[in-house]
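Structure ticket #2291
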Amino acid sequence: MYGDLVLVALIIIGLIGRSPIITTAACLLLIVKLVHLERYLPSIERRGMELGLLFLTLAVLVPFASGRVQPKDIVNAFSGWVGWVALLGGATATFLNSRGLEMLRVDPQLIVGIVIGSIVGILFLRGIPVGPLMAAGLTAVFIKLIQLLLGK
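Resolution: structure written out below.
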């Protein structure tokens, strides 16, 4: 019952905050619960992120598949400093994602703060929830910085 109330609250928050992603996700999970398909919740939890990342990657790769990005475009992307910074950004993001995954394995209760922080970011900062792993990676960096500053 508590889970249902949380989902309804998220639906309301999503509607007020004009966040269709939160609203839709909460609605879908509520439907899963209401039609007694709770047995699929562990699978959704385990594979949902993989599916989300798959579809995100598909969307990003469409310009390559459709031919809108040509080999000359790839060469041009690395002919200036901006392309090299983008390469560095991609490499740094994947490194942070690995640190986030590692941290969540060691300290899984941090996901509560990450999820609530993501909701706050969506509603008040107009963010897009594409990366719980990135959020966990940034959390790992923030924790490390705070530990260094405090000498722990």
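Closing remark: Residues 70-152 form one domain.
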